[in-house]
């Protein structure tokens, strides 16, 4: 408004140049979160979202949609692993931590020591796919068999009807939520008192993409990753818990038939407010959930589960 | 400058010592399991230290003969126009970013070695050693070349005067006279290799196993710090354990550089 005033009091030529300068200044101020160019009542602010590599692509898609609706809210999304997200929530360097596993009681305890009160939101469901090379004749494995492979008790594909090749197991680094999930559900068979570990021969790779590359190149490799990363170049195994084996897909995760199904989480420090709350509501709403579905995940409260109940 | 190094050391020491309040130093130094997120966690650094030593040893075995011979060729044999070309090539070699080498290791060298040697996976110590040897070459070449050039001309002339061939003079007289400088070059090469992170994180597979050969995956000290630092909460046991690993690495490189320095001084006398 004061631009108008300024406009009238200055001569045309000088004004033209200066107005442009001022426009740039206001733009810069706007980027820094200044409210001057924003309509009254329109939300502004900056959100730092950090954590799971499994969620990072989907979260990016959600945030792009979100920023179309609220152009004055800026969202930065970075990966690194669920552990990274939770650590930065505790270190107070992000507003929302994303995680492909639940926070451990010990982490919650540490968080509270640092004055952080984690609040959990389930934003979608995911299946952890077990992938092998396309040339590998093995089609299906049970959880028990996977357990034996990843703990190093079974070391040759021959045992499972494959070729006579030593098995090469691939895992994510310890910062990965998928690593933790897989360790609890497969390596330790979901039992709390089980102290089994990944075989120390397991290769620890730094990203889901690195796992895909090694599986594509190596006939003897077996790895695991979030369903969203399964590509045509690799083969996802059918996994069974008791008798029937199911492939990892949206329907089987939704109906919980696929045994390696899990939630994907957002964590905030206490009750979120302002733009962080807005973003979480958007993510849980139909538009956000649509993006998760497109990224290959299962939306929450989505059709199948609700209909069944 | 010294103040800087000392304060880095004190900083590392302070955080590393915090670990030993909660976790026995004996288990850290001699433990054979690195399981940082288990319950209870285990921070045995032996596999990591051995991993680093294996990869470094492999790299030096490959790099030193190649580097010293190249230096001999550049310093004594090559005509002067070729000398310029070779020297600038060595400098270009030094300028390749390590992440690019790591990438080459993942997409080309790893699969190549796996097929050649019928390994179960190409992500192994040897892949890392080869790439690291490549990275340490410029250091080794340029320092040994300096040492060779520094040998007084009179030595060579005396050898020729006694009827030695060019090869005999180079091999028996010049090379031994330059030995302190060449040892310094090797030491600095080791320092370069043992501290390298990106390449080993990308290509060695990072399994915290007790290594028995270079043909299997292994995990180095540097890759452990780089791979795990992001997820640790400041002030947790795991965080301090990584600082303790950093301290070990610092001590190792300090000793190596110290030896290199001694050798260089002796060479100058």
Q: What features would you describe in this structure?
A:
The complex is a heterodimer of chains A (309) and B (269). Chain A is an alpha/beta fold and 309 residues long. Chain A has two domains: 45-125 and 263-308, D-Maltodextrin-Binding Protein, domain 2 (3-Layer(aba) Sandwich); 127-261, D-Maltodextrin-Binding Protein, domain 2. Chain A is built from twelve helices and 13 strands. Chain A has helices at 2-9, 12-31, 53-69, 82-90, 105-113, 143-150, 177-187, 208-217, 250-254, 274-284, 286-294, 303-308; strands at residues 45-51, 73-78, 96-99, 118-133, 140-142, 168-172, 203-205, 221-226, 234-236, 238-240, 245-246, 261-269, 298-299. In chain A, strands 1, 2, 3, 4, 6, 7, 8, 9, 12 and 13 form a ten-stranded mixed beta sheet that branches. In chain A, strands 5-10-11 form a three-stranded mixed beta sheet. Chain B has 269 residues and is mainly α. Chain B has a single domain, classed as Orthogonal Bundle (MetI-like fold). Chain B is 75% helix and 1% strand. Chain B has twelve helices and two strands; from the N terminus they run H-H-E-E-H-H-H-H-H-H-H-H-H-H. Chain B has helices at residues 2-22, 25-30, 46-77, 80-94, 98-117, 125-149, 153-161, 166-177, 179-194, 198-203, 221-228, 237-268, and strands spanning 34-35, 42-43. A two-stranded antiparallel ribbon of chain B has the order 1-2. In chain B, helix 9 (179-194) runs antiparallel to helix 12 (237-268). Chain B is globular, with a radius of gyration of 21 Å. The relative contact order of chain B is 0.16. At the A-B interface, helix 4, helix 5, strand 7 and helix 8 of A face helix 5 of B.
What is the name of the CATH superfamily of chain B?
Answer: MetI-like
CATH architecture of chain B: Orthogonal Bundle
Rg over CA atoms of chain A: 24 Å
N-to-C SSE series of chain A?
A: HHEHEHEHEEHEHEHEEEEHEHHEH
Gross geometry of chain B: globular
Tell me the fraction of residues in β-strands of chain A, as a range. Answer: 15-25%
CATH level-four homologous superfamily name of the largest domain in chain A: Periplasmic binding protein-like II
Helix percentage range of chain B: over 70%
Beginning-to-end CA distance, first to last residue of chain A? 57 Å
Helix content of chain A: 25-40%
Compute the number of strand runs of chain B.
2
**What's the assembly state of these chains?**
heterodimer
Shape of chain A: elongated
Reading off the top of the CATH hierarchy, the class of chain B is best stated as Mainly Alpha
- Integer-rounded radius of gyration of chain B: 21 Å
């Amino acid at each position: 408004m004061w631009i108008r005033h300024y406009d009238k009091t200055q001569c045309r030529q000088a004004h033209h140049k200066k107005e442009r300068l001022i426009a740039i200044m206001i733009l810069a101020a706007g980027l820094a979160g200044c409210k001057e160019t924003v309509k009254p009542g329109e939300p502004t602010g900056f959100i730092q979202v950090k954590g799971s590599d499994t969620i990072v692509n989907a979260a990016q898609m959600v945030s792009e949609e979100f920023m179309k609706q609220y152009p004055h809210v800026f969202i930065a999304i970075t990966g690194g692993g669920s552990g990274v997200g939770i650590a930065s929530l505790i270190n107070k360097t992000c507003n929302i931590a994303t995680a492909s596993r639940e926070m451990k009681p010990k982490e919650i305890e540490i968080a509270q020591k640092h004055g952080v009160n984690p609040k959990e939101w389930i934003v979608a469901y995911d299946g952890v796919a077990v992938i092998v090379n396309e040339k590998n004749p093995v089609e299906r494995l049970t959880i028990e068999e996977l357990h034996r492979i990843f703990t190093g008790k079974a070391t040759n594909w021959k045992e499972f009807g494959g070729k006579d090749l030593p098995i090469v197991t691939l895992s994510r680094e310890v910062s990965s939520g998928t690593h933790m999930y897989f360790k609890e559900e497969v390596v330790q068979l979901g039992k709390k008192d089980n102290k089994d570990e990944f075989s120390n021969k397991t290769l620890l790779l730094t990203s889901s993409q690195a796992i895909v590359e090694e599986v594509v190149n190596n006939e003897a490799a077996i790895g695991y990753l979030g369903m969203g990363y399964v590509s045509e170049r690799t083969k996802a195994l059918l996994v069974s818990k008791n008798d029937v084996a199911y492939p990892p897909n949206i329907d089987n995760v939704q109906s919980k038939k696929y045994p390696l199904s899990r939630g994907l989480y957002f964590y905030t420090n206490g009750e979120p407010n302002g733009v962080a709350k807005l973003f979480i509501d958007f993510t849980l709403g139909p538009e956000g959930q649509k993006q998760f579905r497109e990224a290959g995940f299962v939306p929450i409260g989505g059709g199948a589960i609700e209909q069944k109940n | 400058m010294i103040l800087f190094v000392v304060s880095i050391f004190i900083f590392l020491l302070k955080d590393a010592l915090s670990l030993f309040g909660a976790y026995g130093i004996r288990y850290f130094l001699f433990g054979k399991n690195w399981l940082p997120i288990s319950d209870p966690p285990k921070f045995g650094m032996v596999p990591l230290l051995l991993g680093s030593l294996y990869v470094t040893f492999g790299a030096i075995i490959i790099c030193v003969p190649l580097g010293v011979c190249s230096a001999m060729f550049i310093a004594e044999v090559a005509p002067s126009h070729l000398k310029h070309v070779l020297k600038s090539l060595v400098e270009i070699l030094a300028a390749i970013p390590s992440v690019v080498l790591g990438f080459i290791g993942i997409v080309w060298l790893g699969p190549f070695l796996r097929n050649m040697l019928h390994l179960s996976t190409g992500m192994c110590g040897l892949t890392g050693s080869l790439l690291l040897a490549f990275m340490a070459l410029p250091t080794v070449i340029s320092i040994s070349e300096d040492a060779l050039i520094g040998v007084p001309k009179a030595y060579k002339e005396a050898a020729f005067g006694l009827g030695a061939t060019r090869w005999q003079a180079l091999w028996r007289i010049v090379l031994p006279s330059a030995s302190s400088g060449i040892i310094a070059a090797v030491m600095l090469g080791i320092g370069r290799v043992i501290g390298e992170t990106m390449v080993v994180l990308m290509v060695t597979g990072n399994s915290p196993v007790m290594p028995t050969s270079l043909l299997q995956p292994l995990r180095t000290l540097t890759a452990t710090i780089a791979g795990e630092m992001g997820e640790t909460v400041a002030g947790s046991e795991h965080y301090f354990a990584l600082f303790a690993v950093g301290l070990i690495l610092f001590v190792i490189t300090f000793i190596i550089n110290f030896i290199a320095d001694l050798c260089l001084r002796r060479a100058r006398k």
